[in-house]
């Protein structure tokens, strides 16, 4: 394992996450916190502008200190009810940015061969950082695991390696205080990080779940076209659009041997189309048109199908800017 880990680091990949859906999360990382609309505080709260500003400044002082993420998170949790929705939203987005920025360093520390080996020996499927902490007697490893947990990450295994990833469930305690777009953004990202959609070129969720996630992403983009996190959700939906119309290398939409659309995809797509009206959804309209073309070809991938895909869902249009 050691030689393999060093190979990927020397190649500049840092982690194998670039081959998975987590790539999207890493690549959408630190975006400026700008364009946040002002929202008035709830009617029955006792919030003053001066106190809100003071709390915001104190939060920033904590957040940007070395290893300041855990303390800043605890402070924000204790004070968020005392600030305006504007400051609450600003602080939550800054916390997200800071967690993204710190993720690379803590990932590198976990990819050290000795550390990875220790973690692998005590890891059981779907374990948390807390569970690993309870099993190790190594104080330095326990400290690293605790720092990762308290800094807002969760543990996952991808392609046989253990990684910290963003834990958006840890942001859900703030959703009552932030602007509506960020509340919905957190919920979208919590789904992504709690149940990863793809790994090693394969789809890890069901077809209906995949389409429903894309619909939630589309709804966000329609409802909040000026959101500070619009670009992140757009990149996510681009990825899901490619999953939908092309499949993945190890979960192809059309069987490699027969060139026929896989039965589970047929069933899943039809079920979602039957349950939802496509009237307000460009994504569903496109999917409905695609299924009509597929039906005409008896669900086989033909030249007509390829031509439709090229004209209506060109890969170049939906591939993320960083390229995969």
What key phrases describe this protein's structure?
2 domains; mainly alpha; 324 residues; SbsC C-terminal domain-containing protein; signal; 57% helix; two-stranded antiparallel sheet; 6% strand; 15 helices; disordered N terminus
User: How can the largest sheet be summarized?
Assistant: 2 strands, antiparallel
In the sheet with the most strands, the strands line up as: 1-2
**Helix proportion range:** 55-70%
User: Which of globular, elongated, flat, extended, rod-shaped describes the shape?
Assistant: flat
Number of strands: 6
What is the alpha-carbon Rg in Å? 22 Å
Order of helices and strands: HHHHHHHHEEHEEHHEEHHHH
% residues in beta strands: 5-15%
- Provide mean pLDDT, rounded: 87
- Cα(first) to Cα(last) distance is 25 Å
Number of helices: 15
Main structural class: mainly alpha
Number of separate domains: 2
Low-pLDDT residue intervals, each spanning 5 or more residues: 1-32, 38-44
Word description of this protein:
- This is SbsC C-terminal domain-containing protein.
- Residues 1-39 form the signal peptide.
- Keywords: Signal.
- The chain is mainly alpha-helical and 324 residues long.
- It folds into 2 domains: 2-196, no CATH class; 234-318, no CATH class.
- The chain is built from 15 helices and 6 strands.
- It has a two-stranded antiparallel sheet. The chain has a two-stranded antiparallel sheet with strand order 3-4.
- Residues 1-32 and 38-44 have low confidence and may be disordered.
């Amino acid at each position: 394992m050691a030689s393999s880990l060093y190979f990927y680091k020397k190649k500049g990949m840092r982690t194998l996450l670039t081959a998975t859906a987590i790539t999207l999360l890493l690549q959408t990382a630190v975006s400026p916190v700008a364009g946040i609309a002002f929202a008035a505080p709830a009617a029955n709260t006792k919030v003053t502008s001066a106190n809100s500003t003071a709390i915001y400044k104190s939060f920033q002082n904590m957040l940007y200190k070395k290893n300041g993420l855990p303390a800043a998170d605890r402070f924000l949790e204790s004070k968020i009810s005392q600030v305006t929705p504007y400051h609450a939203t600003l602080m939550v987005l800054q916390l997200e940015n800071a967690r993204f920025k710190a993720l690379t360093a803590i990932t590198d520390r976990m990819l050290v061969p000795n550390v990875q080996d220790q973690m692998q020996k005590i890891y059981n499927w779907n374990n948390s950082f807390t569970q690993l902490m309870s099993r190790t007697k190594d104080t330095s490893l326990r400290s690293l695991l605790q720092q990762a947990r308290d800094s807002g990450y969760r543990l996952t295994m991808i392609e046989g390696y253990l990684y910290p990833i963003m834990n958006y469930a840890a942001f859900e305690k703030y959703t009552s205080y932030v602007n509506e777009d960020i509340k919905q953004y957190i919920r979208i990202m919590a789904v992504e990080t709690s149940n990863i959609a793809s790994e090693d070129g394969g789809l890890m969720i069901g077809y209906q779940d995949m389409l429903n996630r894309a619909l939630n992403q589309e709804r966000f983009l329609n409802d909040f076209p000026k959101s500070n996190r619009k670009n992140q959700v757009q990149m996510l939906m681009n990825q899901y659009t490619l999953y939908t119309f092309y499949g993945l290398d190890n979960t192809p939409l059309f069987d490699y041997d027969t060139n026929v659309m896989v039965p589970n995809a047929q069933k899943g797509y039809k079920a979602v189309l039957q349950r939802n009206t496509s009237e307000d959804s460009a994504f569903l309209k496109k999917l409905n048109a695609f299924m009509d073309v597929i039906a005409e070809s008896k669900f086989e991938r033909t030249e007509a199908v390829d031509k439709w895909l090229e004209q209506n869902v060109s890969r170049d249009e939906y591939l993320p800017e960083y390229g995969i």
